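Subject: Predicted fold for ATP-binding cassette domain-containing protein, 260 residues

User T.R. writes:
Posting the sequence so we have a shared reference for the thread.
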Amino acid sequence: MNTNPSAPVTLSVKNIQKSFGDHHVLKGISLDAKEGDVISILGASGSGKSTFLRCLNLLETPDDGSVSLAGEELKMKRRRDGRQQPADRRQVDRIRSQLGMVFQSFNLWSHMTVLDNLIEGPLRVLKRNRAEAVEEAEMLLAKVGMADKRGHYPAHLSGGQQQRVAIARALAMHPKVMLFDEPTSALDPELVGEVLRVMRSLADEGRTMLVVTHEMGFARHVSNRVMFLHEGRVDLDGTSQEVFGEQKSERFRQFVSSHQ
Ligand code: ADP
Ligand code: MG
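User M.O. replies:
I've generated the structure tokens; pasting them so everyone works from the same file.
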């Protein structure tokens, strides 16, 4: 899949640094995601993939570096220890609400029905009226094949169904970019396909997506770009064809062969 090379940059990340204590986890990561890009983020366990996504939606604050969404740069101020912190909490909330996050562990609200999970954010954050929010939620549930489960509680759904609802819930907030952190890693193998199919349909719609995954089929055939992290640095970054076709590094070859 190819995106238009002249498409505007939706998410721009420059030189992200992050340490936990004296453990330097991210050592200068940069990435420009253009509108419609589907970027797979690959790397061994502990290479910093989740920390990178968490720095983008500001669940973690990058110690250094910048994050811009749709041309708006997150304002940072320096602390005395030289690290930075967001200068404007309202801006953080605004930027975060435009990044849809899907986690490994579904994270649906267990005391709410499927439908209520979908309309909660639109009602409270986007200030939609109920009829509008319900109408859109039903459309999104149909899109992920969950329309007939609108009255169910999460505990009564399979992992694959919960993850499809979690994707629909993220979409209900009209995100500019969708971030996925190993969305299929907690699923029984027979449930992985239904979630990957939904993700593929979002890619085909032209949504901008960053996907941390160990699914090599998705990385190779659905995403148009691949970023391979090693110990907090970008080891490879290119089109899927480049990264998989040339298999430039021995490290990447080994990574791929251990995930077949
Ligand atoms: P990945 O998602 O690629 O497996 P992570 O981003 O979760 O990697 O973690 C990268 C490194 O950062 C690991 O060594 C992990 O133990 C460490 N780390 C992640 N989050 C924290 C945290 N909140 N506190 C301390 N160390 C952390
Ligand atoms: Mg992780």
